[in-house]
Structure formats: structure tokens, C-alpha cells
């Protein structure tokens, strides 16, 4: 902008989306005004004109486009607010990342007619389809089948399992991943008509990123770059050839002994998977109990189940150092002030994740991060810069792909669809795909009390659930948490076969405020694990061991 031009901010009524912004831009350009920004949310346009008389022409042009111009305000001249090339933005929304949040946002934004670009430095599809949910769950299922073949709980059944061909399993897993990546991600780019740029994005300013030497501008951005495994600061660990979850799923041969550092769902799932495939597994963690953020009854049920299966679990470990020689790897630690050494052929590090924000140059975009590098967002998924949104694992919310997809859709609605929608994460179900599975939704008993509820709870051992009895799989528990005053269900937590299939019903109960009585009065099909929810509701006031089958 040159000094002899004027800078004007004009109020405009009637804009509802980014397509409206483009119409206004076209109206401005048609009468010789240079648009600096048009914002439908604020209901305003900022532009340059050569002289005062042009402002009236601008108003007439905007009126002809179907919008209502308001008051014009003269702004001080600045040389820092526009692009050096004088062009308008390349896209309405630039999405950095290509996982669940990114694709959900892109599909939603396209429905509003927005021009979308997706920027990805690695494999299309993000964590879930490439190295997370899809590959791990198919391998977990393979492990379960192998374990059932080795040993089953039924008298009279003679089953056995041959040695595992790990390469064949991994090759089949790769084929499944490639198919789903193509069908559920890559093909959708052309189907929905948004652009894709390959490379690493780095912010130059709040409306520009650089990707491989190319500068890309956008009215708004969505950061959906996900997270990667954290490597704990244990002396010697970085000097040995440890595995992360992704590398573990690529092993062509089974180790004889696997040591797992971590206490979360990834450590539990993959540790048990290798146990099911015939590997000697030791799980080690700093926390005093497994799954420490869960209710104590849940943690105890998982510990008992894993221990009965022959998986060694070490809690309360303080790691001293990791060493490697020709005989393998050794983890030195203390437990209750006693020194212990765990020997292993492979070490899996599953000690949490960190957000992928280091290379984005977020200060240039005026985006604030938290202590762990996570992007700080408000309830509308806006960052400290209202032009820039973030969704999914990079915000360090619940680390589930369905949460990422939910947030991506809301971010797109808010960024380009004119919405002002807040996220609601009060009833997010979580499933750990172990055997038995762990599923949870809503508040734990401790969380409920911390939030001021007069919390009451019922705890139902799984041997009180007929389905578990006929399956000969009674290791587990079902716990419900409710408000004593309203009797509304606040949380549901379960360790059981198919707990992940059951928890959706509990999610609906928590989300829509069903009461203990609502669950009691609902018929549950007999000999299903879902019946455990009703039995747990009855347990608040009755001894279900003294009821006949199906009696309520």
C-alpha cells in the first residue's frame, strides 16, 4: 500500500460464510478498491481506496451484491498488514495435517463452498490408519485368536497353535492399511475437490505458511498435526535400539522377551498382543498402578487379569539406566528401594505422546502453546490467534480419532461456516482393546466428588453377569457412578469381554442424563454383556446374587 491511498474499515451486514467474503472481495475489486481482509464473523471489510469518493462506489457495489454496507471508518496507514505480492488469499482454509481431524474439517468446509488446501509432510491419513488404530487392532485380533488356539476355557476342546509367521501377519496388516488409506483418505481428496500440498508447513506470519519454498496464504488455518511418542529421559535409553508403537507393528520376527516401558493403553494393548503371540512380556511403569487415571477397581481388575494370564507387571518403578550388549538389553530400576534388572531382547517405549508443534514456527502466527508443546484452544477450538484453529491430538485433549474427527468438524463449522459452536467432551467414551477390554465414559468416582457431586457408586464383579459365566471369562468388573441427589448417571467403567461394544449404551445414558431408575426399567437382552449395565444399576440398592435370571 502506498502513502497516497486511504485505508478504510466498512461494516457490512448479511455475510454468513466464506463464500460471502469472496463476493464482497469481488465487489471491492470491481470498483478499484484493494481488499485487505473481509471477515463475515465480524461483519466488516478492510480495504484501500485511492480517494474518498470511491467509498460511495464501494457501498453501491456491495449493495448490488446483496449485502448491506454500514458505517465507514478511516484507519491509520500501515505497511505491515498486506501481502507483498498484492494478491488475495489463496485459500479460505488451510489445514495442516491429514488425519482424522483434518479430513473431517475438509469435508465439512467443502460443504460451505470454501476453497480448501491440506498440507501433509508424511503419510496421508495420519496416525490412525497408518500406525495406530487400524494396524494395531488387526494385530490385536490376530493375537487373541492365537491365544485362544493355544488355550481355551472349555473342557473337551482340544486346540493348539503353530508357531507364528510374523512376516505373513505384518504383510496382511500392511495390505489392509494401504487399502483403507486409499479408500478412506486419498480417494476423498479428489472426491471432495480440495487441494493437497506435500511438505512441511512453517508459518511466516498469521496468514502465510511456507511449504518447500512455496508460500501459501489463507484466510484461516486449522492445525491438526497430531502427536508422536515421547521418549522418556532414562540414562542409556537413547543409546539402544528401542521400539516405538509404530516400529513394533513392523517387526518381522517375534522377540523371545519384550520389556514395555509405560502404563497407558498403548503399553497395555501391545504388551498383551505380544504375550498372546507367545512372547515373554514384562510391563514396567512409574505409576503406582496400571491405568492410573481410571477408577481403582478398574485398575485392579486389569492387573488381576493380566497377572492371571502370565504377564509380569512392575509398578512404582524408578528407572536408573538401560544397557545393551551381545546378550540383549537390560533395564535397571528400583522398586520400593530394591534394585531390579529386567532382561529383554526388545524394549517397547510407550510412555505417552507429545504434540507435533516444534517445526510450525507458531510464534510467527501468534499462536500460544502450553507446557508440553500443545496448542492452547478455547471451547470453540480457536487458538490465541482467532484466525487459527486447532483440533485433535495436537491440543492434548482425549487422544481418540473420533474425538479428533468431531473437533475437526466443529472447527470447520466455526472457521468457514459461520457457526459459534463449542465442543462438548463431557461424555467421551474410551476403549482399551485388551482382553478383557477396558471401556469407560464420564466421570470416575474421584472426579465426580472433586466436581462437587455427592457421588454414589455401584461395583458389580463380572462373575455376577450371566454372559461372563457362560463364556468362562469372569475376570472383570462393572462400575457405575451417579449423583445421589438426582440419581443421574455420571460415569460408567467396565472391564469385560466386549466392553467396547457395551460402552456406547452407557455413553448415551451419561450424555442424556439418564438415571439409575431409567437403566433399571430398561429391558436388557439376557446373556449379553450389556446386561451388566442393568445389573450394575440394580446393585445400587439390591444384592443381584440373590435374584433369579433376568429378574429386576
The tally of beta strands, per DSSP, is: 25
Mean of the pLDDT scores?
93
CATH topology call of the largest domain = FAD/NAD(P)-binding domain
Runs in which pLDDT lies below 50 for 5 or more consecutive residues are: 78-86
Percent in strands: 25-35%
Provide the CATH top-level class of the largest domain: Alpha Beta
Overall helicity: 25-40%
Indicate the radius of gyration in whole angstroms. 28 Å
The CATH homologous superfamily of the largest domain: FAD/NAD(P)-binding domain
Q: Specify the overall morphology.
A: globular
Structure classification: alpha/beta
* CATH architecture call of the largest domain: 3-Layer(bba) Sandwich
Number of helices: 15
End-to-end span in angstroms? 77 Å
Q: What number of domains?
A: 4
The biggest beta sheet is recorded as:
7 strands, mixed
Describe this structure as you would to a colleague.
It is built from 15 helices and 25 strands. It has 552 residues and is of the alpha/beta class. It folds into 4 domains: 6-75, Alpha-Beta Plaits (2-Layer Sandwich); 91-228 and 355-416, FAD/NAD(P)-binding domain, CATH 3.50.50.60; 237-351, FAD/NAD(P)-binding domain; 430-546, 2-Layer Sandwich (Enolase-like, domain 1). The chain is globular, with a radius of gyration of 28 Å.
Summarize the structure.
With 552 residues, this protein is of the alpha/beta class.
Amino acid at each position: 500500500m502506498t502513502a497516497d491511498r486511504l485505508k478504510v474499515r466498512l461494516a457490512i451486514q448479511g455475510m454468513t460464510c466464506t463464500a460471502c467474503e469472496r463476493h464482497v472481495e469481488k465487489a471491492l475489486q470491481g470498483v478499484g478498491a484493494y481488499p485487505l481482509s473481509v471477515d463475515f464473523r465480524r461483519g466488516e471489510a478492510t480495504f484501500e481506496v485511492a480517494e474518498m469518493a470511491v467509498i460511495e462506489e464501494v457501498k453501491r457495489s456491495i449493495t448490488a451484491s446483496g449485502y448491506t454496507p454500514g458505517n465507514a471508518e478511516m484507519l491509520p496507514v500501515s505497511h505491515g498488514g498486506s501481502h507483498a505480492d498484492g494478491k488475495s488469499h489463496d485459500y479460505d482454509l488451510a489445514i495442516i495435517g491429514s488425519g482424522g481431524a483434518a479430513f473431517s474439517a475438509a469435508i465439512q468446509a467443502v460443504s460451505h463452498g470454501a476453497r480448501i488446501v491440506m498440507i501433509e509432510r508424511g503419510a496421508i491419513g495420519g496416525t490412525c490408519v497408518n500406525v495406530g488404530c487400524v494396524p494395531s487392532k488387526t494385530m490385536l485380533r490376530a493375537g487373541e485368536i492365537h491365544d485362544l488356539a493355544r488355550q481355551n476355557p472349555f473342557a473337551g476342546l482340544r486346540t493348539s497353535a503353530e508357531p507364528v509367521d510374523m512376516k505373513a501377519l505384518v504383510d496382511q496388516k500392511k495390505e489392509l492399511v494401504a487399502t483403507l488409506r486409499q479408500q478412506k483418505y486419498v480417494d476423498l481428496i479428489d472426491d471432495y475437490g480440495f487441494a493437497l500440498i506435500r511438505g512441511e508447513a512453517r508459518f511466516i506470519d498469521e496468514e502465510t505458511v511456507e511449504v518447500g519454498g512455496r508460500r501459501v496464504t489463507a484466510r484461516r488455518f486449522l492445525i491438526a498435526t497430531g502427536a508422536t511418542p515421547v521418549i522418556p529421559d532414562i540414562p542409556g535409553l537413547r543409546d539402544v535400539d528401542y521400539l516405538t508403537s509404530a516400529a513394533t507393528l513392523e517387526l518381522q520376527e517375534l522377540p523371545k522377551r519384550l520389556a514395555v516401558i509405560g502404563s497407558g493403553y498403548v503399553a497395555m494393548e501391545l504388551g498383551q498382543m505380544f504375550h498372546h503371540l507367545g512372547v515373554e512380556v514384562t510391563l514396567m511403569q512409574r505409576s503406582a498402578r496400571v491405568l492410573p487415571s481410571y477408577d481403582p477397581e478398574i485398575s485392579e481388575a486389569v492387573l488381576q487379569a493380566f497377572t492371571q494370564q502370565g504377564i509380569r507387571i512392575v509398578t512404582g518403578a524408578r528407572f536408573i539406566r538401560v544397557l545393551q550388549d551381545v546378550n540383549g538389553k537390560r533395564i535397571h530400576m528400583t522398586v520400593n528401594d530394591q534394585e531390579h534388572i529386567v532382561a529383554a531382547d526388545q524394549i517397547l517405549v510407550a510412555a505417552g505422546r507429545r504434540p507435533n508443534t516444534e517445526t510450525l514456527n507458531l510464534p510467527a502466527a501468534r499462536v500460544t502453546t502450553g507446557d508440553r508443546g500443545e496448542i492452547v484452544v478455547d471451547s470453540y477450538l480457536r487458538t490465541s490467534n482467532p484466525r487459527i484453529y486447532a483440533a485433535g491430538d495436537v491440543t492434548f485433549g482425549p487422544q481418540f480419532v473420533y474425538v479428533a474427527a468431531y473437533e475437526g468438524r466443529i472447527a470447520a463449522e466455526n472457521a468457514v461456516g459461520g457457526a459459534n459452536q463449542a465442543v462438548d467432551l463431557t461424555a467421551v467414551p474410551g476403549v482399551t482393546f485388551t482382553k478383557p477390554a477396558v471401556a469407560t465414559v464420564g466421570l470416575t468416582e474421584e472426579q465426580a466428588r472433586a466436581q462437587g457431586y455427592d457421588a454414589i457408586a455401584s461395583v458389580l464383579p463380572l462373575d455376577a453377569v450371566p454372559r461372563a459365566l457362560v463364556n468362562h471369562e469372569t475376570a472383570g468388573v462393572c462400575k457405575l457412578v451417579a449423583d445421589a441427589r438426582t440419581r443421574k448417571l455420571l460415569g460408567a467403567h467396565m472391564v469385560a469381554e466386549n466392553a467396547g461394544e457395551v460402552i456406547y449404551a452407557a455413553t448415551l445414558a451419561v450424555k442424556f442424563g439418564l438415571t439409575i431408575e431409567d437403566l433399571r426399567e430398561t429391558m436388557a437382552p439376557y446373556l449379553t454383556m450389556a446386561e451388566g449395565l442393568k445389573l450394575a444399576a440394580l446393585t445400587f440398592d439390591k444384592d443381584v446374587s440373590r435374584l433369579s435370571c433376568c429378574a429386576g
